[in-house]
Design a protein that fits this description.
Layout: H1 34-43, E1 48-50, H2 54-61, H3 65-69, H4 71-74, E2 114-117, H5 121-134, E3 138-141, E4 157-160, E5 167-170, E6 174-175, E7 178-179, E8 183-187, H6 201-208, H7 215-218, E9 225-231, E10 237-240, H8 246-252, E11 262-269, E12 275-285, H9 288-301, E13 311-318, H10 320-323, E14 325-334, H11 338-354, E15 358-368, H12 369-373, E16 384-392, H13 393-398, H14 400-412, E17 417-422, H15 427-430, H16 441-444, E18 445-454, H17 461-482, H18 502-507, H19 511-521, E19 556-558, E20 564-566, E21 584-587, E22 590-593, H20 594-601, H21 728-741, E23 751-756, E24 762-766, E25 833-834, E26 839-840, E27 874-877, E28 880-883, E29 901-904, E30 907-910, H22 911-918
Parallel strand pairs: 2-4, 3-4
Antiparallel strand pairs: 1-2, 5-8, 6-7, 8-11, 9-10, 9-11, 12-14, 12-15, 13-14, 13-17, 16-18, 17-18, 19-20, 21-22, 23-24, 25-26, 27-28, 29-30
Helix pairs in contact: 9-11, 9-14, 14-17
Length: 933
């Protein structure tokens, strides 16, 4: 199965990803009725089709095995994807799998409900208008030659462009009056430029960049694109080129497939027909060390072909004991004779034979270039995932040994296939002056190398989940290290669905501009692509906002912003307390417990800062026409008001002031002298209403006017509205007050308002200095909210009298276990990583066949206590060797054995804690499917 993937090296279509928000779903009030669908079918001239997964379709028409694996035949099925694991619905419970010759559990799978078999822009416009009206998810597909699942979406409307197969040749194509030379205009369903039969030039090929074995001679496919015809999200049918919609034209060339609209045709520059020589070689190796040495030799010789502008596919397969390790090489020499091509390859062949490798066969054919690359068919109906990196040219010139070492590490990890593509350098590098959204890493790259792994239909969902996570986490860092760059890039059309930093990896510095163009042309995200989605890159399961890992159906819970969290990850951002629907309060789409939300942002009340700005009320005038200044019953006004019912503050929340005036004084001194002291503004609202001090004092009784400290956003007071003239003594006193008001708002050891006592007077306490690090307060009591977070970037005033100040130099203690944890028992804080649920033990990192032993064969190391495990005391579990006493549940610390052990990503749990945190074991796996809605 893996060997057949060679024919699919250039696999691209016009694609669409999952929605960044929940769209209309079957059974909801806004979802289209049968009458609505019937009306749409009439509008598109009877071209509305019912869609089912390819396995279900083949079961109905009795496909032969040859038809099932033929991409050309599968292309006639609207619901098919070549990598048909993307047709499965792994998020249902139990998983809904539509497998070849086993469709017992299959209903809709993960494919659209209906498809419009479009042949004219009007059909697409009708479909877009219908989807917008009913808030439907939209999927766009040309041929289905897609290995990342972007051209399918559950419960969506599919816009199928396979039969836009018009073609027009132009001897002289003009853009804005400029002659662009000869060009060909093809519909989105035509096969142009790819080595596989179902590559669609008008699909996602050029939108990802589009590489070819002739790219070193003529550049990337996007470099040769002159114009697109496209239907946009607003239904308009436009041309995008250097003159018309130039920003959209920039984004379409390399800015990601499926994000911008539905392409109906593409115009590409043509080149004169030329002949080429194809040299093929098969080489076998007897060990991973010998294969790695050969790939280092290959890296040293790759520059031998630069002068010929040659391209090459070089694929290394690990076929096990039966087939050994094989290198299959196909090198394309444009405008080069047969003899010259063989002479160019000869030095490499000689060097690999010198290390004992066996050259099984060599052939060289000279013919027209189109005849050498075109294929009648390619392979489909397979389960596979990819990962890739662009390897810089400087790495081949300066550090080829690093490339050989990467091959050795990947083979030792058990990678089945490493597919290399010499498709950069030469004209690709020289086209750096072309302004497009192509990742800049293409201009400095030499090769595009990808890894692939496959699985059979008999694999359990749990096994496939583990395979995918392991494939990415263990292998991608090795390939990324081989680039010699910290910010390595990847080809987004052949990449991993689990890329964590996909913005930089797929788009680099172009991401921000792409985002702004996306907002301009598709403001409602009708064509939602991976980099605008809350799901993980390129569809698949939702990603938890806290831990950035996949959230499977049985363990998910919805948090702020309708984001899906693991149950154990939905914790307060401040104190890490686990949250549920009763205790959850959100602020700016972040979860908080009620106590922390009240402490940081004030009460959740309509009188809080959520209210809009309210202009000042008109000044109240007394009976004699003068401003009203008195309180009720002739009492002086509260110091928080200096004008009766006059000017109101800009915010409905009044800041709370404390100080050393004659009323309050300083802590422990009773009443103080009339001298003014510093007035502190707390960093949070302490009350949902305006603070009112009792005692009937006016503003001057506190040593100064409170209008000297305006609310944030309040205009400066008008000096013409002073109530009485000031004297020289008053000016001196006011200067002193103004001087004290310029003191820092928060200073260590300064009294601050911490609430009101029973007598109505404010309590005060000493402020502790803010700390640049976050610490966890020791559990002095049983209050779950005892955690204290102090950060220099968030200066929250904490009274020393409230809790003993924790040491900022001590290591952070692990969070409290959940309510179900065993009382008084906690995991040892050794090599532990705090999470919202407790403490997770790290998984073994890239273990070699020797396990987690030291080099030299000493005892293995226990993952929990990090001490040697001797034979008499060891137990093996979750891929590691433990002390018997150390194999305990991560959550409740219960001792585990083979009957009670359940694991999650290399972390041991008891059955009860696993079910509480992650749902029933074995259900709801969400490998590569998409969360519905």
């Amino acid at each position: 199965m893996l060997k057949t993937y060679l024919s699919a090296l250039s696999a691209f279509t016009l694609l669409d990803g999952v929605a960044a928000r929940c769209r209309s779903q079957p059974g909801q009030p806004g979802f289209p009725t049968r009458e609505d669908w019937g009306a749409l079918n009439t509008t598109v001239e009877g071209r509305l089709l019912t869609v089912v997964p390819s396995a279900k379709a083949c079961a109905e028409i009795a496909c032969t095995p040859a038809q099932w694996s033929s991409a050309v035949f599968r292309n006639t099925l609207p619901g098919q994807i070549n990598a048909y694991n993307w047709e499965q619905n792994y998020t249902s419970n139990p998983a809904e799998l539509c497998l070849y010759n086993n469709t017992a559990s299959c209903t809709q799978g993960d494919v659209p409900l209906y498809a419009i078999n479009a042949t004219a822009p009007e059909h697409l416009q009708a479909g877009i208008a219908f989807a917008s009206q009913h808030d439907l998810r939209v999927a766009v597909k040309s041929s289905g030659h897609d290995y990342l699942g972007r051209s399918t979406a559950r419960n969506s409307l599919l816009l199928w462009t396979q039969y836009f197969q018009n073609i027009e040749f132009n001897e002289s194509f003009t853009v804005g009056g400029d002659d662009m030379g000869s060009a060909v205009t093809v519909g989105s369903g035509m096969v142009v430029g790819g080595s596989a039969a179902t590559v669609s030039a008008g699909g996602g090929y050029t939108q990802g960049a589009g590489h070819s074995v002739f790219s070193p001679a003529y550049g990337l496919a996007a470099d040769n694109t002159l114009q697109y015809k496209i239907v946009l999200a607003n239904g308009s049918f436009v041309a995008a080129n250097d003159v018309s919609n130039p920003d959209l034209f920039w984004a379409l060339r390399g800015g990601g497939a499926g994000s911008w609209g539905v392409i109906t045709s593409i115009t590409m520059r043509t080149h004169p027909i030329f002949s080429a020589t194809l040299h093929s070689a098969n080489i076998t190796f007897n060990s991973t060390s010998q294969a790695a040495a050969a790939m280092e030799i290959h890296a040293r010789h790759l520059s031998d072909y630069d002068s010929f502008r040659a391209g090459q596919y070089f694929s290394l397969y690990n076929l096990g004991a039966a087939g050994g390790i094989q290198l299959q090489m196909r090198t394309y020499f444009p405008n080069v004779s047969n003899d010259s091509a063989q002479a160019a390859i000869a030095p490499f062949i000689a060097d690999v034979e010198a290390i004992g490798a066996s050259v099984v066969s060599q052939t060289a054919i000279t013919a027209l270039a189109n005849d050498l690359v075109a294929r009648a068919d390619d392979d489909g109906g397979v389960n596979l995932v990819l990962a890739s990196r662009l390897i810089p040219e400087t790495q081949y010139e300066q550090n080829p040994s690093a490339i050989g070492a990467a091959y050795k590490a990947l083979l030792d990890q058990g990678v089945l296939g490493i597919l290399g593509n010499l498709v950069a350098g030469g004209q690709v590098a020289e086209n750096a002056n072309i302004t497009s959204a192509i990742h800049p890493k293409w201009r400095t790259a030499k090769t595009h190398i990808m890894m692939v792994t496959t699985w059979d239909d008999t694999a359990l969902p749990s096994d496939v989940v583990a395979l995918q996570e392991r494939f990415y986490s263990q292998n991608v860092p090795i390939l990324a290290a081989a680039t010699g760059e910290e910010d390595s890039g990847s080809y987004s059309n052949e990449a991993s669905v689990l890329e964590t930093d996909f913005k930089a990896t797929f788009f680099g510095p172009n991401y921000d501009r792409l985002l702004s163009i996306k907002a301009q042309y598709d403001p409602k995200d009708l064509f939602v692509h991976d980099w605008r989605s809350e799901m993980h890159p390129f569809g698949g399961s939702p990603r938890c906002p806290r831990c950035e890992k996949a959230v499977y159906a049985a363990e998910q819970v919805m948090g702020p912003g309708r984001k899906l969290y693991h149950k154990s990850c939905l914790t307060c951002k401040e104190c890490n307390k686990r949250l549920d629907s009763y205790s959850l309060v959100e602020h700016e789409e972040e979860p908080y417990c009620k106590n922390c939300h009240r402490k940081l942002f004030g009460n959740r009340d309509l009188r809080q800062q959520n209210l809009p700005y309210r202009p000042a009320s008109p000044e109240r005038v007394g009976a004699n026409g003068s401003p009203f200044t008195g309180g009720f019953n002739g009492a002086p006004l509260s110091p928080t008001r200096t004008g009766g019912f006059g000017a109101a503050p800009s915010s409905p929340v009044r800041a709370n002031y404390t100080g050393g005036g004659r009323v309050f004084g300083t802590v422990g001194t009773g009443r103080a002298s009339p001298a003014a002291a510093a007035l502190l503004r707390p960093t949070r609202a302490l009350s949902p209403t305006r603070t009112t001090f009792t005692g009937g004092m006016d503003a001057s009784s506190l040593g100064g006017s409170f209008d000297s400290v305006p609310e944030e956003g309040t205009p400066a007071a008008d000096p013409d509205k002073s109530k009485e003239p000031t004297t020289a003594g008053d000016e001196t006193e006011e200067a002193e007050v103004e001087k004290t008001l310029r003191l820092p708002l928060v200073a260590p050891g300064t009294p601050t308002h911490t609430g009101f006592g029973r007598n109505g007077m404010p309590r005060t306490g000493q402020l502790v200095p803010s700390s640049p690090t976050k610490v966890r307060a020791p559990d002095w009591d049983d209050d779950d909210s005892a955690g204290v977070s102090v950060s220099a970037s968030t200066p929250v005033a904490t009274a020393a009298a409230a809790t003993p100040p924790p040491s900022t130099s001590a290591p952070a203690l692990p969070p409290r276990a959940g309510a179900a944890a065993t009382v008084g028992r906690r995991p040892l804080p050794l090599t532990q990583t705090p999470t919202g649920a407790g403490v997770r033990y790290p998984s073994p990192l890239n273990q070699t066949p020797t396990g987690n032993r030291f080099v030299g064969g000493s005892s293995p190391i226990c993952p929990r206590c990090q001490k040697a495990v001797f034979f008499a005391e060891q137990v093996k579990a979750v891929g590691s060797t433990w002390h018997k006493a150390c194999l305990r549940c991560m959550e409740c610390n219960t001792t585990l054995d083979s009957k009670r052990l359940t694991e999650k990503e290399g972390t041991p749990f008891c059955h009860r804690c696993y079910n509480k945190l992650h749902g029933p074991a074995g259900n709801g796996y969400a490998l590569l499917g998409k969360a519905g809605g």
